[in-house]
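Worked example 2:
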Amino acid sequence: MNQPDCKIASIKDLENLPQWLVAKAKHYKLKYLLAHAEDGVIWGRFDEESLITADQVFTDLSQKLPTLRLSTLQRCRAFSQAGELLLWKSRSDWKYCFTGNLDGDYISEKQMLWGTQKVEEVEEKDGFTLVKDGSEGLRHAVPCVDIPFSNDRKKLKRPLRLEVHHYIDYDEDGLARINRSRLVDLTTV
């Protein structure tokens, strides 16, 4: 199996995190950003020369969406069909690893995401939709529009999916194990 292209990024490389991510997304041909921070989940989309995050699109909400900041970031993934860039903090250093399309077998999984309905008082905007989940009110803004939600409140469904490839490696005895997983796409059903 091909090994991923792993490198250590120093904090100096990340002083302007969005600019660093845009350069990597352009180089590796990446489309989406999914980041986990201390204050929540951050979705983004890469365009030709920029990164657009959900908090930049929905600026007028009473409950603000999390902002992409190095000070609160735990890890983030930039991904597309071409590959995934994973960035994480390890002690005092930031590290990143790019995983492209690896040779060999893999299992494709479509993981269900939160979101049973669109937040009705907020319009879809700049390719993003603000969604919420059931009565809990959990919400996030995904870089996706025209999501096929059910209008029947008794039959709520979660149509958002995160496609993941789990790559299989075999040892000398033929025993299979998942060697690596990577995000591939954001879709709906």
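The chain has a mean pLDDT of 90. The CA atoms of residues 173 and 179 lie 16 Å apart.
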